[in-house]
Specification:
The chain has four helices and seven strands. The chain is α+β, with helices and mostly antiparallel strands. The protein folds into two domains: 45 residues, no CATH class; 70 residues, no CATH class. Strands 5-6-4-7 form a four-stranded mixed β-sheet, with helices on both faces. The two termini are 23 Å apart. The structure holds zinc ion (ZN). The site of zinc ion has 7 residues, from loops.
C-alpha cells in the first residue's frame, strides 16, 4: 500500500488516500472514483508527489523561490498570462530535461556533487526534499502542473 496526500482542486481540501500502487491511484483518478470527503468533487490530485521540480547544477532563474501560491477568485488577466508563461517554461524544461521520477532529490545531489553526468533533470519531490536541496545550494524549482497532466 502507498499513501498519498491528496487535495481537491476546486476548494483545496486536503485528505489522505491509500492505494495498492501508483497505477491504482491513476486508474481510480481516471475513472472519477476518488472523491473529496469535504465537498464530494471527483477532481482530486496528489498534493505532494507530482512532477513539479526541475534542477540544474548551475541554477536557474528564480530557483530559490519555491512558489506556494493559491487563488480563490478567478485570476486576473496578468496572472493568467503568468501561469501560461510558467506552463510554457514547464513544457520547455520537460522537453529538454531527463525525467527521473521519484529519484529526483537523489539524482539532483549526484549531479550537484559531480557523481554523474551533468544535465537538466525533472521529477517528483516532496516539499521537505526540495527544502533540503535548496539548503545544500542545489537549485530546484517547482514546475506548475500542466493541463495535459489531468488526463
Ligand atoms: Zn473538496
Amino acid at each position: 500500500m502507498i499513501h498519498y496526500a491528496l487535495r481537491c482542486e476546486p476548494a483545496g481540501h486536503g485528505f489522505d488516500g491509500w492505494f495498492r500502487s501508483g497505477e491504482d491511484f491513476d486508474r481510480q483518478s481516471a475513472l472519477g472514483l476518488l472523491e473529496c470527503p469535504s465537498c464530494g468533487t471527483a477532481s482530486v490530485a496528489k498534493a505532494l508527489m507530482r512532477p513539479a521540480v526541475a534542477a540544474a547544477r548551475d541554477g536557474a532563474p528564480g530557483a530559490s523561490r519555491p512558489a506556494e501560491t493559491a487563488a480563490v477568485a478567478p485570476p486576473p488577466p496578468e496572472m493568467l498570462a503568468m501561469i501560461q508563461r510558467m506552463q510554457e517554461m514547464a513544457r520547455e524544461v520537460r522537453a529538454k530535461a531527463d525525467y527521473v521520477g521519484p529519484n529526483f532529490a537523489e539524482e539532483a545531489r549526484r549531479i550537484h556533487y559531480g557523481e554523474t553526468e551533468e544535465r537538466r533533470i525533472y521529477g517528483e519531490a516532496s516539499a521537505p526534499e526540495v527544502r533540503g536541496l535548496l539548503e545544500e545550494g542545489i537549485a530546484a524549482l517547482p514546475l506548475p502542473a500542466l493541463p495535459e497532466d489531468k488526463n
